[in-house]
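Quick look at the format.
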Amino acid sequence: MFHLLTARKRGFTLIELLVVIAIIAILIGLLLPAVQKVREAAARAQCQNNLRQQALATINCADTNQGNLPPGWGWYPNPYPVAYGGQGDPHVFILPYMEQQNLYNASLMIPGQSQTWYDGVYSGNFTNGLPAYAPHWSALIWNGPPVKVYQCPSDPSFALNGPPKGILCSYCANGLVFTGGTSFSKYPANITDGTSNTLFYTEVYAICSGVNSHGGAHSWISASNVFFSGIYYPIAWDAGIGPSYFQQQPTPGTCDDARPASPHTGGINVGLGDGSVRFVAQGISPATWWYAITPAGSEVMGPDW
């Protein structure tokens, strides 16, 4: 009997329980920053991979089309409307070179058929009635799912209300490389500063409404996704050593949509003309940053490149 009474299991006291809870809370507090750093590193790596795919697809696109780079905004592969030609920005025309041929095909607009624009019936007037690949007209594209290769997981603006999420884009093309009009830039002939020293794509916020230059949103189907260019919008965009510098972690409500913007700590991801990707440190000089944007400026890159 004495053995049974003394063998009763002893429980935790309230003080012991509180001490255990406090220790667990401290451990969680210590682990959270590490988890956040790992998560951010993974997101940054995903953004870099997206840019690499875009840069390599651009090279393949040019190689397939007599060295012609796609336009910042316009017709391609012919610089004027033809049957089954395409109209858009570089992100439209590189889709088939990133295993997105089906998505590109879904943007085909044929006059007289049932597919509609996102807020009206497609007439084909802008192509003289010719069938054309024109995702900016296509209801299927506007209402479609997100294109993961065009969206950075670190972009904080996806939580905001804006255009249909599927067309939003966290990357933008260099308008000094991807020109418009009736002639195309040649790859690599027109990149005389060197493809490894010339920026093709960089990060932006999908929604950036602090200083509205053309609506505050970046979409892979429109000319708003090309910086340093007035190809489509009649705007005197600021370009030059000073105003060209990228924004470092602005809030979506305060950033300038005409300039690149990084959601990462300490710098910004860029895709270069040779298909490589670089994380450009925040401390890079404005001059060196600008030299990386100009494809044929004959500048000497600074030691901070």
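Next, a different chain entirely:
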Amino acid sequence: MLRFDLLSTSTTTRARRGRLTLSHGTVETPVFMPVGTAASVKSLDSRDLEGLGAEIILGNTYHLMLRPGDDLVARRGGLHRFMDWSRCILTDSGGFQVFSLSTLRRLTDAGVTFRSHVDGSLFELTPERAVAIQENLGSDIAMQLDECPPALAPKADVAAAVRRSTAWARRCLEAKKRGDQALFGIVQGALFEDLRAEHAATLVSMGFAGYAIGGVSVGESPEDIDRIVRLTAPQLPADKPRYLMGVGTPSDLVRGVAAGVDMFDCVMPTRNARNGMLFTSQGRLVIKNAEHRESDLPLDAGCGCYTCRHYSRAYLRHLYVAKEITYYRLATLHNLSFYLELMRSIRAELERDAFDPAVWLRRLGGAGEGAG
């Protein structure tokens, strides 16, 4: 089940304000989806996520098929019941994780055979199996199995990956059984504009419920990411949701919204939080730095999250240096709040037709870029 209502469009950019209706509720777009790889957004529980206002989170097919196993999750009533999350879930197909295991997998047109990074067990992932796993998990949105080539792969290799992803897309559609789960196609093509355009047109002709732009967070420069997203997004149907996979920094999100993207996910806010890098309206803050040792300031005076309302930089630095588990929860709450509030603000501006990406990019400054 999926309905996408386009509520308004920007008169100065390709940005869109929309609403997704899925089996477990509505999602206001543009939206950032916190990543809950193994049925958990690391260090947080479902109540934390609800308090942050998250309407949809992401789960990972590859990790969940390895442990605890999709059959076990199905016997527990599906992923929503298993993790006590009543709102929406998107699951990726596992393809990106499998293809990153270049020394542990064997790829054919049938699918991919790989060794588990957990215990070395042999697994096979086919398009049909990827759909079956996600149907067992019971997510609201499932993704097709695709081949994600490296950013700088030769054009012949990328073209072969596009052809294989197209064939797998057809098989995923044929394998789909659940009527309450939407299936998205994934546009590949690396940095080659002609391959991107060709693949987008082919997938659109298949009639997926939504479309993702894949393979743009595998080593490309920010400029190349922006170029490919600006090229690809307008070639996807205006009446269906557009999802930019695995991207990225706050500035990446702003540029993606301006290009017409509706959905985003990235591990950056959660991973960077655990590594001691916090996003603030004044730029990036590295909590281990000595300047915070005796600071009674919150992480961000303009932030209303639980962490900023209750705790000082000095306390958070102490927790981080002492490797106290509490730090990971408080830091993750703050970083996700920063991302979700960014998207809420952008949505409000789109409703007034006041969204200006240049203003946002200047405002974000040092908070807009950087890895963990």
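The chain has two domains: 2-266, 273-365.

See the schema section for token definitions.
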